[in-house]
């Protein structure tokens, strides 16, 4: 079963991180996304999160028979909305607000050669740089002390990536953390 996700939109202040951290502390998976996401991009993000297709998109009208969303209905733009959402889901290209495709840069960021590293198994009450690194990746307060907030956020992350949500960061969890980081590049 897919875990619920809350999307926090980044409006350019520290508040988004604080809000996301507080929500994660409740054990709910949270992601921060740019404030300028289009409605189609947000719909595509959520549909992909749950493994659904655009056939699951519904208008407020479909549930309540209210004339909503008014503009999409009055201007008969619902099919266009669904089509744009589907395009966002199908490829990694973005589209501008006019609906035309814009290729993302294919240039990869500079990286080191592959490293073969061993990371420590860390759990509640662990301290040190590995804890700080994990906290930064989880976007929680970075203090190098594996406390309740770090444990709660780690469990939410583990649950979301479908591994045992035990709050212990061992080999399997580190692997998923690195995969998640690589996906964000």
Comma- or semicolon-separated keywords:
mainly alpha, two-stranded antiparallel ribbon, 185 residues
In a nutshell, what does this entry contain?
By secondary structure, the chain is mainly alpha-helical.
Commentary on this structure:
With 185 residues, the protein is mainly alpha-helical. Helices cover 44% and strands 9% of the residues. The chain contains 8 helices and 4 strands; from the N terminus they run βαβααααββααα. The strands form 2 sheets. Strands 1-2 form a two-stranded parallel ribbon. Strand 1, helix 1 and strand 2 form a beta-alpha-beta unit. Helix 2 crosses helix 5. The radius of gyration is 19 Å and the shape is elongated. About 8% of the residues have low confidence.
Largest sheet: 2 strands, parallel
Query: Total helix count?
Result: 8
Q: What is the strand tally?
A: 4
Low-pLDDT residue intervals, each spanning 5 or more residues: 93-107
Tell me the distance between the termini: 27 Å
Shape: elongated
Strand content is 5-15%
**Order of helical and strand elements:** EHEHHHHEEHHH
User: Going across the major beta sheet, what is the strand order?
Assistant: 1-2
* Arithmetic mean pLDDT: 80
List the helices and strands and how they pair.
Elements: E1 5-10, H1 15-25, E2 29-34, H2 39-50, H3 60-64, H4 70-74, H5 78-90, E3 94-95, E4 101-102, H6 129-138, H7 148-160, H8 171-183
Parallel strand pairs: 1-2
Antiparallel strand pairs: 3-4
Helix pairs in contact: 2-5
